[in-house]
């Protein structure tokens, strides 16, 4: 989860988020190099005493400032398109979960299990026990097995919502009457927090998401207990 004065992204807990972090670092390095080059050119123009009178015939400069930006855009676009493809690729998920947004809570349905449906409400600050994060903890967590591809089917019952878990690299809109899907594979055990990321009304800030990644044995015990 995020912490005070954090400057970077949260640590990755899925392969997609690791790819996103690598792409962020790659693009940021390109931005730094371009900014340094532009600053150098500006400084050079302000400090030099030389002039160039042949300003109407500079084919070399024209070629450089046309070809170089095109190469830079290709170096950024290719990794970006690769990640977009990986985010849309869903092959043989081990588990499918439907998340339905409401004003103002989430409900979850494990479509591979009969009668495994529950609502997830935020725990009010007055009822929190020591150590639980404020405005992020829920009464029922979405429990998933670790190292298993999970497919999420996301929709909404009333207005626009957005199901977002930063550490998993997920932010998918929940639209009434439409079913969106995304996938993630938790690589670490633990609790991963998210929130609704689409303004959906007065209690928009009070419908958190908690994903609990556990070992397969614990998940099977949990699912059996929930169904019973």
Question: What does the model show?
Answer:
The protein has 228 residues and is of the alpha+beta class. It folds into two domains: 15-88, Helix Hairpins, CATH 1.10.287.90; 95-227, Immunoglobulin-like (Sandwich), CATH 2.60.40. It contains three helices and ten strands. It has helices at 15-47, 59-88, 216-227; strands at residues 95-102, 105-110, 117-120, 142-145, 150-156, 161-165, 170-174, 180-184, 190-196, 208-214. The protein is elongated. The two termini are 32 Å apart. The mean pLDDT is 90. One of its GO terms (biological process) is ATP synthesis coupled electron transport.
Keywords:
single chain, 228 residues, alpha+beta, Helix Hairpins, Immunoglobulin-like, 5-stranded mixed beta sheet, 3 helices, 25% strand, elongated
H/E series, N to C? HHEEEEEEEEEEH
End-to-end CA span: 32 Å
**What's the domain count?**
2
State the CATH class of the largest domain: Mainly Beta
Which helices and strands appear, and what pairs or packs with what?
Blueprint: H1 15-47, H2 59-88, E1 95-102, E2 105-110, E3 117-120, E4 142-145, E5 150-156, E6 161-165, E7 170-174, E8 180-184, E9 190-196, E10 208-214, H3 216-227
Parallel strand pairs: 1-5, 4-10
Antiparallel strand pairs: 1-2, 2-3, 5-8, 6-7, 6-9, 9-10
